[in-house]
């Protein structure tokens, strides 16, 4: 069975890039551009891993992370951020995020983190 991956980012180009890369790697991949979409996908699809942008208009990444963990404690989350805000990164880890990576990112490093956390 394919591992399920949810990509949550308000930037279309990043979602498409990550979607294409991880689909080619054999994952079942979903996309969301906001918190509401992300939470609906978590409820409906129970992804194994969520790549979650820290800065999303409306509901920020920390709020989305809190809600994801309320819905499913077993859903793994890796945060993405273009901002080196150490306080937010530390808060995300306290809330259960496994890791984070900066944007812009090296796609091979992101792929490696995903593989590590999905044990593929």
Automatic annotation (TrEMBL):
InterPro entries for this protein: Bact_response_regulator (IPR050595), CheY-like_superfamily (IPR011006), Sig_transdc_resp-reg_receiver (IPR001789)
Biological process annotations from GO: phosphorelay signal transduction system
Pfam families: Response_reg (PF00072)
UniProt cross-references to Gene3D superfamilies, sorted A to Z: 3.40.50.2300
Residue span(s) of domain Response regulatory: 4-118
Organism, scientific name: Alteribacter lacisalsi
Protein's name in the database: Two-component system response regulator
Positions where 4-aspartylphosphate occurs in the chain: 53
PANTHER family: RESPONSE REGULATORY DOMAIN-CONTAINING PROTEIN (PTHR44591:SF3), STRESS RESPONSE REGULATOR PROTEIN 1 (PTHR44591)
